[in-house]
Amino acid sequence: MPESMLAVEAVEKNFGGLSVLSGVSFDAHRGEILSLIGPNGAGKTTLFNIIAGALAPSGGRVRLGGRDITRLRPNARCRLGIARTFQIPQPFASLSVLENVEVALEFGHHVSGRAGGRAADWLKRVGLSRWSAEPASSLPLGARKKLELARALATEPSVILLDEVMGGLAPEEIAEVSAIIRSLKQQDIVVVFVEHVMQAVMAIADRIIVLHQGRLIANGLPAEVAADPAVIEAYLGGALDAPAAD
After folding, report:
1. Which residues pair with 207 in a beta bridge?
2. What is the pTM assigned to this prediction?
3. What is the DSSP letter of 244?
4. Which residues on neighbouring strands pair with residue 13, listed in sequence order?
5. Sheet containing 190-194: which strands, arranged edge to edge?
6. Distance between CA 115 and CA 127 in Å, rounded?
7. What is the pLDDT of residues 178-194, one digit of tens each?
8. What residues pair up with 179 in beta bridges, in sequence order?
């Protein structure tokens, strides 16, 4: 069994009297692509915020490489190896595309004198080289999503959390981003992604975790999850399709 890099242990989150997450537990291993799915309001973004440190859990723990990081701030978690993207891209609009990635490199405590060349490498990897000198505010949605991904990767994470990085993209852009995500396995990066583009989920996820009303109701291979009666009921049928046999 590969080494467990990320562990979520009995995580709870309450907002007043409302329970948003209840006893959620799972782990992810080096080089694993894990998809977190569920209907709207299932608690997916709340769980992402807890893993990234933007929210404190009401109960339970988060571990990174065996270390308890439950009480660490987001910047400390980033330096330990957790990066994330946001559903709505949040670039520094007044900076160039290249400068946005340079900021991420600096935040990840890389040597400032090499930031420009390293940033250019990350832009090339996500297919944004031609936008390098343009202000981030000028990017169309697909390019903004890729910039979010480049900035997260520039921190050189061991765990990357992708929040609907394919939402709103054209089919060819989805294919490009899917290929980038698959390539991260070769670097032993843990990928946990929330996505509503189910074709992409079923094609690239090694394992799928399903949340429904704040509870984990399934955790398994894509074909297993697609056939799970509890998952089918949660999605009211038809939302999940197992990949066709080769």
Report:
1. 34
2. 0.90
3. P
4. 21
5. 82-84, 159-163, 190-194, 33-37, 207-212, 215-220
6. 18
7. 999 999 998 999 999 99
8. none
